[in-house]
Amino acid sequence: MRNVTIENVTDVVINSLGENGTITDRNREILTSLVRHMHDFCRDVKLQHDEFLYACDYLARAGQTCDDKRQEFILLGDILGIEVLVDMLTHPVEGTESESTVLGPFYRENPPVLPKGASTVQKHFDDEESVYFEGYVRDANGNGVEGVTMDVWEDAPNGLYENHDPDQPDFNLRGRFLTDENGHYAFRAVRPVPYPIPDNETAGELLRAMGHHPNRPGHMHFILSKDGYRTLVSQVYDSDSDWLDNDSVFAVKESLVGKFNPAGDNLDTDLHIQFDFVLKAAEAAIAAE
Ligand code: BEZ
Ligand code: FE
User: How far is the CA of 266 from the centre of ligand 2 (A)?
Assistant: First the structure.
């Protein structure tokens, strides 16, 4: 095809996709829809060539911002509400299971393995509020699930995750815990504070273009995993935090909001929160029933 037009270019590109067998069905489905939506977008806004070149330069700069500590494309996806949308499409909530939400860019694999009740705090801050975090992990029938691996991570009272703060020890405020024979988990940590997502570089450029602030409400991150259950990536939000209703990455769900109460005399922390999770059986486990 030599003479593409504004009207036919979309079909020309889609028809050019490889013969059956030369590309996967999923790639055909994704690329067909991608081309359609991107062409319609260009026609809709009558995208101009200088704007196209700006976008190419912007993406190149976003790529140059990435290193082993910063994943700019996850951030851009979060600011546009894409990660939360993809998460909901991947993990639709059908029953009583806990809701998932975004992973975000600050997770680190293989955090320190700690016994139940241990503290993730390696460095203290003057204004920190210590917290005893506990609860049960149950299955859909309400039975406690033993041996669930729980990775937890949060920002420090200065609003920074340890891997973005040279003054915090490696893996500060991160840990891996296991539920006990009753499905109970517990750890000591600090109250997570609201923080701005990194808003320099291209993420900041996008936030400013959208007229948005960068702030997120205080939250504790969790990944719960055990063979036979669907891995749950989620967060627990502080009900007293700012930004619950205008999170910069749209990730707050009402069911994930918990209350940090003053701790009783039986605890050695300032605050106490109880938060339970329900895990869904993995598809393979359901099919085998
Ligand atoms: C986070 O919760 O750590 C996060 C999520 C999305 C973007 C930036 C940070
Ligand atoms: Fe976070």
Answer: 30
For 100-110, write each residue's pLDDT tens digit. 999 998 999 99
Kindly give the number of the ligand 1 atom that is closest to the alpha carbon of 106.
3
pLDDT tens for residues 143-165?
999 999 999 999 999 999 999 99
Instruction: Determine whether the shortest distance from the Cβ of 104 to ligand 1 is under 6 A.
Output: yes
Question: Helix (H, G, I), strand (E, B), or coil: what is residue 23?
Answer: strand
pLDDT in tens, 88-147: 999 998 889 999 999 998 999 999 999 999 999 999 999 999 999 999 999 999 999 999
The rounded distance, in Å, linking the Cα atoms of 246 and 207 is: 13
Is 197 touching ligand 1 by the criterion CB < 6 Å?
yes
Distance CA 208, CA 184 (A): 43
